Amino acid sequence: MSPDHITLVTKNLTQSYVIFSNETSQSDCLKYRDIKIILADDQHITLLVPPSACSKGHHLSLFVFKNEKQLRVLKKMPNDRSVLKCMVLHGTIEEFSLIDEQIAEVTLKLTDKVMEYWKSMIDAIEKKQENVSQLFAKYRE
Amino acid sequence: MDAKAQALIKAYLKNKLFLVVEPTVAGKTAIEKMLQKSAVARKNVKFSKTAENALDIMKDMMPNYIICLDKLEDGTYKEILELHLKQHPNRLDNGFILLTENDSVDSVTRLAQSEIDAAVILPFTVTSLQTEFLKIILPKSAPSEYKVLIEAAREHMRFDLDKALIFLKKAKKADPKPFEALYLEGMIHLSDKALELAKDSFEKSLHFNPTYYNSLKELFNIYISLKERARAYQISKKLSENFPVNPEMIPDLAWVSVANAQYDDILNYHQAFKNVDEPDRDMKNYISASLAIYGKKIIKDKLEGTSEVDDTLVQRAFQLMEEASVVCEDKPLVFASLINTLILSNNEAITQKVLERAKSKFPKNKTIKILEILADDATLAPSQSLKNAQDAIKTGLKSPEIYQIILKRSIELGLNEKAVNDYLEEASQEFPQLKPEFEKIISG
Description:
- The structure holds two protein chains of two kinds.
- By secondary structure, chain A is of the alpha+beta class.
- Chain A has two helices and seven strands.
- Chain A has a seven-stranded antiparallel beta sheet, covered by helices on one side.
- Chain A starts with 16 loop residues before the first strand and ends with a helix.
- The model of chain A has no long low-confidence stretch (mean pLDDT 89).
- By secondary structure, chain B is α/β, with parallel strands linked by helices.
- Chain B contains 23 helices and seven strands.
- The chains are: A alpha+beta, B alpha/beta.
- Chains A and B meet through strand 3, strand 4 and helix 2 of A and helix 2, helix 5, strand 7, helix 6 and helix 12 of B.
């Protein structure tokens, strides 16, 4: 068998990682392991976040990273945020609900986004699902 | 989707009951929206935020379909799935969709081999969720006779194997390529420990579908247990060429490749490993185990002169064994295998390097300490080696190999007969079955 044919089963995820600046409270949340995107549509994005980091009506800047390598060494938000190698989304929190003491669910209405990036993010979510679905089917057919 | 399919789905979903187990408001809303778009009546859907509440609802509701987050505040989806399978063992009118953020190949391939119908990855969009939902219900809304029989067999496999076999017999006649029916038949034979019958069923299943994963996996295990190495190798090739290779299978696959003199396979697994970004601990351990198997075989062949092993091959084996000692995270047995092989090879430089790594990783491991004394025996003066071995025995580190060193070196150094006999007696008391071997050392 040739090496090209071999793929190893890994536990690596292909998720995006997010940190954010709360422009309303002038604070940053770098706890990327506690922030998860759970839903996206044309106008909104829903995340799970630490409850103390934001409230309804707050304006957030989300920094979305393709992997966590940069975030592992990020101790504080740089003054010049353009040095972060990531995509940026801006939005206002329309819905805020507490799931438990550690987790709040927030839905942001996106107010400023690079349309091309947002479309590619939605496409990537649907493509990832398609890939998972195909792999799933491969084991059953 | 054409009008006929839409009508089928509408009819299929008309009286189906749904339970959504999802703690977030947005998730619940999105799923509700998707179900409404799929013509599911609002009154037929219930929601729960926790596992406990979901289990309560299930007792009365007996939902046909469950859409459930994998991790809930009070448990996981597993208990919910288990109850659902008990309530509805026939899955044609029922299903389970799991929401999870874990899209790793490891997780997806495990889920694909479980009884859930689909894994929907977070984050999702209403479109991606609906696409998955339709993929599940469309084939169930108009199943073939074969599928109905297969599902009936699966259902009866939980409690009535004889009846399951009757359904499978019918299923085999209902489809020109009944590979799934043959696989299930094989599983029933396996549960009866009828290995030959199971083997026959899986082989027939693969005749109709040569890359059917379930049959490949079971047949590989059967060939391994029957020591049918050439056949196991053919199956292992199909598995690794068509599916991602699970690291925990690599030592078995490596063993089969080595048994068939297909040494390059191990290098290919190693190459695939090197392509993995941040491999986890288990994967490192399994790869190092396969490299140890490779090294052991090459060195053994070289020493026995039983096959054509040239210097290039031997040098590569040394290099890979050293690499195995770097990669291996926490398996002292892998180190023990490497050191044992290296001691036999007389390559003192690499033996010492590997030994040092082993000692730093497992400073208290008894096997490694014994191997250190064995490795040192080849290089130290006889008196020093004898002292090492005697000290080891005093600290309770007793093994046949250490007694062998003591006896050999005592004779070599000309110790008095009483001292030698005392050691012989002690060794024979500790390991009575090896007494003749100890005596042989003394008699020279």
